[in-house]
């Protein structure tokens, strides 16, 4: 059998909690949490954000899967954050290395990123209003 549902206080108490939870939810839309490499610029700018920031994170993950490193990587997390905020100046894809993946060259160097893959990533690593899913 299922456990009994929890009992709650008066309606007035419930409404108070409801207001508090709505206020907390609004606060979450301005908080900064996450691994710096994948945080969207609007989150870092603290201008408010919505679900589109998740598309940015997916774009950063896709970039890393294609290139082998995060798109705005730095040893210093604060530098990473500055690069993300100024993403137009810092987003670049590696140029393919000669011999990448062939028998003579091994797996050293950068892979070739197809135009379709590059477009997919750029569709997520852009301004929120222009992102895939917008």
UniProtKB/TrEMBL annotation:
Top-rank taxon, per record: Eukaryota
Location of the region described as Disordered in the Swiss-Prot/TrEMBL record: 1-25
PANTHER family: CHROMOSOME UNDETERMINED SCAFFOLD_135, WHOLE GENOME SHOTGUN SEQUENCE, MYOTONIC DYSTROPHY S/T KINASE-RELATED
Catalysed reactions listed for this entry: L-threonyl-[protein] + ATP = O-phospho-L-threonyl-[protein] + ADP + H(+); L-seryl-[protein] + ATP = O-phospho-L-seryl-[protein] + ADP + H(+)
Protein's recorded name: Protein kinase domain-containing protein
Residue ranges annotated for the Protein kinase domain, each copy included: 1-134
Pfam family name, one: Pkinase
Presence of the UniProt keyword Phosphoprotein in the record: yes
Keyword field contains Phosphoprotein: yes
Source organism (scientific name): Pycnococcus provasolii
Biased composition (Basic and acidic residues): 10-23
């Amino acid at each position: 059998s299922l456990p009994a549902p929890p009992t709650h206080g008066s309606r007035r108490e419930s409404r108070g909690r409801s207001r508090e939870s709505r206020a907390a939810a609004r606060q979450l839309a301005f908080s900064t949490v996450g691994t710096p490499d994948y945080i969207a610029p609007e989150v870092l700018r603290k201008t408010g954000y919505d679900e589109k920031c998740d598309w940015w994170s997916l774009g950063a993950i896709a970039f890393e899967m294609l290139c082998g490193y995060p798109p705005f990587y730095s040893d210093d997390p604060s530098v990473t954050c500055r690069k993300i905020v100024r993403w137009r100046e810092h987003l670049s894809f590696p140029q393919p290395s000669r011999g990448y993946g062939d028998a003579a060259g091994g797996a050293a160097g950068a892979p070739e990123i197809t135009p379709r893959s590059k477009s997919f990533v750029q569709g997520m690593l852009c301004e929120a209003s222009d992102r895939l899913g917008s």
